[in-house]
Structure to design on (384 residues):
């Protein structure tokens, strides 16, 4: 009720929640004691009687750890209770080094950020973490992640809780990004696809106003759908011909190497596209076409209002976007495509950090019926 930052009196809260004032008073007292809500000075009024006290979220009293873990990097942030970033840093790492080494780096980074903003470890109320693999929602552990050898079933939350004894919410990175995109730029929509194209490829699905994880956390794992263009290229999932072997950063780089271009990583591909290299632009467009063909099935099945592309490869811009659009418009029915917006995310890393913080907020305060817009910046960033 107080998550939007608007101060309210006990009477207003009781009316909006349908609870009696005594229950509201008890709950407010608990939240104040936990440092999550603060009582504001009563505002003056022109009517008779004593002005009523107002209550609001204590945005500065506690902090949330928000982490995006990629195959080659981690973005580690501390936010206030509304998700406003107080400090963040980017770490270079390799998830193939295993969970202990990587998570220890993240724990140290979180501790360094607390020191930098002058907050004790006890001020952390929760940590949200997005990881590049399917997360079983029943256990919050990764299930056979192709990009993360040694992480299968590892207790990520328990590792972090050994230093920070707070709730730790773990989900697939593109799911986390989807939540962030939804609440900051598309809060009025109930159906949304967010697609991350980087070392791997995945989709975060918002359907009927809810994040769709699937029974075992594999919802939206489109990178391992076989596509004809990939031929017999081997994939880390032990299959051949998966979408990400052709359309991920490494997949596009492989296509270019087959044409005699010396590239290995997504950043090199994107640089060539920005330089106007014809082969790189064609490869990015072809990759977008294969992604679009796969997405056309989701468009037919889910009828999203928007499709948002993010990740390192999405920085290639127009060639990739054009390929995605062409394939979707060619394959899906007009009733599903006439109104859909297909765009590149304005701030994919920011959305992932926002999403990680929001997972913690939802755990602590409950899942709202509609996305809560906290601050003016969110309105200003929408559909930027």
């Amino acid at each position: 009720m107080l998550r939007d930052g608007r101060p309210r009196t006990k009477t207003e809260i009781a009316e909006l929640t349908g609870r009696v004032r005594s229950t509201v008073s008890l709950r407010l007292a608990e939240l104040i004691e936990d440092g999550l809500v603060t009582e504001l000075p009563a505002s003056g009024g022109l009517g008779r009687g004593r002005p009523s006290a107002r209550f609001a979220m204590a945005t500065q009293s506690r902090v949330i750890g928000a982490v995006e873990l990629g195959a080659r990097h981690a973005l580690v942030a501390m936010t206030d209770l509304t998700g406003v970033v107080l400090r963040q840093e980017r770490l270079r790492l390799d998830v193939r080094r295993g969970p202990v080494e990587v998570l220890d780096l993240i724990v140290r980074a979180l501790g360094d950020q607390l020191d930098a903003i002058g907050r004790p470890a006890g001020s952390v109320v929760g940590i949200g973490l997005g990881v590049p693999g399917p997360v079983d929602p029943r256990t919050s552990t990764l299930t056979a992640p192709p990009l993360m050898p040694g992480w299968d079933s590892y207790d990520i939350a328990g590792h972090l809780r050994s230093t920070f004894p707070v709730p730790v919410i773990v989900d697939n990175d593109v799911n986390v990004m989807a939540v962030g995109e939804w609440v900051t730029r598309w809060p009025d929509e109930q159906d949304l696809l967010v697609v991350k194209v980087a070392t791997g490829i995945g989709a975060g699905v918002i359907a009927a106003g809810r994040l769709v994880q699937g029974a075992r956390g594999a919802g939206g794992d489109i990178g391992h759908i076989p596509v004809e263009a990939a031929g017999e290229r081997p994939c880390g999932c032990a299959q051949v011909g998966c979408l990400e072997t052709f359309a991920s950063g490494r997949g596009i780089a492989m296509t270019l190497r087959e044409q005699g271009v010396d590239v290995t990583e997504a950043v090199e591909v994107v640089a060539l596209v920005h330089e106007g290299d014809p082969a790189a632009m064609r490869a990015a467009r072809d990759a977008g076409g294969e992604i679009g063909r796969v997405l056309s099935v989701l468009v037919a099945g889910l009828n999203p209002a928007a499709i948002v592309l993010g990740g390192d490869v999405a920085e290639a811009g127009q060639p990739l976007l054009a390929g995605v659009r062409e394939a979707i418009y060619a394959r899906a029915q007009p009733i599903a495509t006439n109104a859909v917006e297909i765009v590149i995310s304005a701030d994919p890393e920011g959305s992932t950090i926002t999403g990680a913080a929001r997972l913690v907020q939802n755990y602590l305060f409950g899942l709202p019926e509609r996305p809560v817009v906290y601050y003016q910046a969110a309105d200003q960033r929408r559909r930027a």
